[in-house]
Amino acid sequence: MPLTAYDLSGRTAFVTGAASGIGRASAVLLAEAGASVHCADRDTQGLHETATLIKAAGGTAHTHYLDVADRAQVEQAAASATAATGRLDIMAAIAGIMHNSPVLETRDEDLDRVLSINFKGVLYACQAAARAMITAAANLANTNAANPDTAHPDTAHPRGSIITMASGAVDTGGPGLLCYGAAKAAVVQLTKTLATEVGPHGIRVNAVAPGWIRTPMTDRHDSDAQAHTEGLMVRMSPLGRVGEPEDIAHAVLHLASDASAFTTGQILRPNGGVAMPW
């Protein structure tokens, strides 16, 4: 397949969690590939910085301040992004938070907060994107049927791609990670189920399950604890290193592009080889 399969020129992408870490790296890379990127987050300063990076490199960026746990905000932002170009081709639902608590000490409010952002926030983004993509595909098909001599080639191979962010936590247990792991496992099930439902419309749905990545989310310990944890991850990895946000951004780009045109309902695991499930 030629490298043009990774060209996203003319496409519209929406990225949640775009203010930092994996979300920022993904937004920047999608823009470099040619997409018009709508960056969403509740961190206004981080959003501005991400948009500035994209524009400085010659890309197109728009910002949406929102809380992914608020369905109405997500739907409004997705509708705004779609209205700008009449299409929404890529949804990368990356926003998430980390929480640590032993099972026996986990409170209702802890579980509710993590599920509201890490699962419901992804669900809302997926729903908004799928609806927009289905409508756009139907409109395009109707237009082409009415004007067969100028039919758009996208009709034969629709390009809607929804990418969710799971975690290596879905493949193994970890002390203190009940809320986070349970939410990410739910994301995996959402991904597989939605893939079966929207596939007939030409929409693909896949998840990325990163291993240990250096991001503001993982940098939540003091320096000694952080060094100890990273050292452990390095020793566990056959590649002998931890990941960077750009490692995951390239996985997102692959799933967003035509290079993965025959891939749906899958879990891509860029984790340095720490976990190798069947």
Q: Brief description of this entry?
A:
The chain is α/β, with parallel strands linked by helices and 278 residues long. It has helices spanning 21-32, 44-56, 71-85, 108-146, 178-198, 223-236, 245-256, and strands spanning 12-16, 36-41, 60-65, 90-93, 161-165, 204-208, 267-268.
What are the defining features of this structure?
278 residues, alpha/beta, Rossmann fold, seven-stranded parallel β-sheet, 7 helices, 7 strands, globular
Descriptive account of the structure:
With 278 residues, this protein is an alpha/beta fold. It contains 7 helices and 7 strands. Helix 1 (21-32) packs parallel to helix 2, helix 1 packs across helix 7 and helix 4 (108-146) packs parallel to helix 5. Strand 5 (161-165), helix 5 and strand 6 form a beta-alpha-beta unit. The protein has a 7-stranded parallel sheet with strand order 3-2-1-4-5-6-7, with helices on both faces. The chain has one domain (7-144, 156-215, 245-268): NAD(P)-binding Rossmann-like Domain (Rossmann fold, 3-Layer(aba) Sandwich), CATH 3.40.50.720.
The unreliable regions are none
CATH T-level topology = Rossmann fold
**Gross CATH architecture:** 3-Layer(aba) Sandwich
Helix segment tally: 7
Structural class: alpha/beta
CATH hierarchy, class: Alpha Beta
How many runs of DSSP E, i.e. beta strands?
Answer: 7
Cα-atom Rg, whole angstroms?
19 Å
Overall 3D form: globular
Give the DSSP E fraction (strand runs of 2 or more residues).
5-15%
CATH superfamily: NAD(P)-binding Rossmann-like Domain
Kindly give the count of domains: 1
Helix residue percentage: 40-55%
* Biggest beta sheet attributes: 7 strands, parallel
SSE topology string: EHEHEHEHEHEHHE
In quaternary terms, these chains amount to: single chain
